[in-house]
Write a structure and sequence with these properties.
This protein is mainly alpha-helical. The chain folds into two domains: 79 residues; 66 residues, Orthogonal Bundle (UraD-like). 68% of the residues lie in helices and 0% in strands. It has nine helices and no strands. The protein is globular. 25% of the residues are buried. The model has no long low-confidence stretch (mean pLDDT 90). Pathway: Purine metabolism; urate degradation; (S)-allantoin from urate: step 3/3.
């Protein structure tokens, strides 16, 4: 049995309290955590990632807000938020002017949509994320909600994969 398979088996065998804590560390939505937990045992990694996709797709508006509340603003990961710091590593090299513009664009986005701008930041530069933010700002709320769901699914996939890979 591979280390990856052992990690998946250990996660699937975790007691309900421990599993909930682990899952909420991936996604802050209690409804998401409950749906993913209810899908166990996962026969393999793909089944767990499929459970993530199904759970994200089923989130109500309030549940999606719960998930978004667990994400730091792009360019402003919270102190001690290792996941956000790791995922937003591409922001570290940005100069002050770019960070200020990112801050202004984030504020405009939040004013328009009522939540943080969510994007899979892993491997992206600050300039790339700012361009995506500007591109998405004119979206209507329904379109943006579906983009946010897809970004959340992708972020959760990355976090699940990191967990299973022991990274």
């Amino acid at each position: 049995m591979t280390d990856r398979a052992r990690a998946l088996d250990a996660l699937a065998a975790a007691d309900a309290v421990e599993l909930r804590a682990v899952l909420l560390g991936i996604c802050a939505s209690p409804a998401w955590a409950e749906a993913v937990a209810a899908a166990r045992p996962w026969r393999d990694r793909r089944a767990l990632l499929d459970a993530n996709a199904a759970a994200v797709a089923a989130l109500s508006t309030a549940d999606l807000q719960d998930a978004l509340a667990g994400h730091a603003r792009i360019g402003a990961p919270g102190a001690g938020d290792a996941a956000a710091e790791r995922e937003q590593a591409g922001v570290r090299a940005a100069d002050r002017a770019l960070l200020d513009e990112l801050h202004r664009a984030n504020a405009a986005y939040e004013a328009r949509f009522g939540h943080v701008f969510l994007i899979r930041a892993t491997g992206r530069s600050a300039a790339t994320m700012l361009a995506a933010l500007r591109e998405r700002l004119p979206n209507d709320p329904a379109t943006e909600t579906e983009i946010v769901r897809d970004e959340l699914r992708r972020i959760n996939n990355i976090r699940i994969t990191r967990l299973l890979d022991g990274a």
